[in-house]
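Quick one, probably user error.
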């Protein structure tokens, strides 16, 4: 069975040469992109596995891996004023030191009124030394995105209310918040 690729590269440019090395055929075509635009380019086809490694590089699916990481609570005044909870998981992520910052709000607004928000913040303040599961999305072997597993956070703190957090912002950096 042959393999196909859609190439929008300019004819005989560097990407064109890379995509067409070993190609059996090529035909000019138009393709609808995920955003709905029509892109002009070339359909390129191969007879078999001679381009398998390179094709996987261009069209590889993301891989997901889990790591248990220590975390710290960001006890900022901004969070208190807007009712947020922010944590930062940190550590070695596939050979690189990374800091994964995530900010949340409570899905159940009643938790703000009855004092449970403050209780949750106190639990986080005393969480030193605990770890949570972080799921990383890898593309070409590099971490591109992450998600804190809220079930893991709730389990580490012994409080199911942490499962009812709603993510409002996140980022992965080479430097920490402190």
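Nope, works fine. Designed sequence:
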């Amino acid at each position: 069975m042959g393999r196909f690729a859609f190439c929008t590269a300019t004819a005989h440019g560097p990407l064109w040469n890379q995509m067409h090395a070993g190609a059996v055929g090529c035909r000019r075509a138009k393709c609808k992109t995920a955003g709905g635009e029509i892109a002009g380019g070339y359909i390129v086809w191969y007879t078999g596995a001679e381009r398998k490694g390179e094709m996987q590089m261009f069209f590889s699916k993301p891989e997901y891996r889990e790591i248990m990481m220590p975390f710290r609570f960001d006890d900022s005044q901004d969070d208190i004023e807007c009712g947020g909870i922010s944590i930062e998981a940190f550590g070695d992520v596939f050979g690189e030191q990374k800091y994964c910052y995530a900010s949340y709000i409570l899905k159940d607004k009643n938790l703000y009124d009855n004092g449970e928000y403050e209780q949750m913040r106190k639990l986080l303040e005393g969480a030193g030394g605990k770890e949570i599961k972080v799921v990383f999305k890898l593309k070409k072997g590099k971490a591109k995105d992450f998600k804190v597993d809220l079930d893991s956070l709730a389990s580490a703190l012994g409080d199911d209310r942490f499962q009812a957090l709603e993510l409002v912002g996140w980022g992965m950096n080479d430097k920490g918040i402190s």
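Strands lie at 3-7, 25-32, 38-46, 63-74, 84-93, 96-106, 131-139, 142-148, 165-173.
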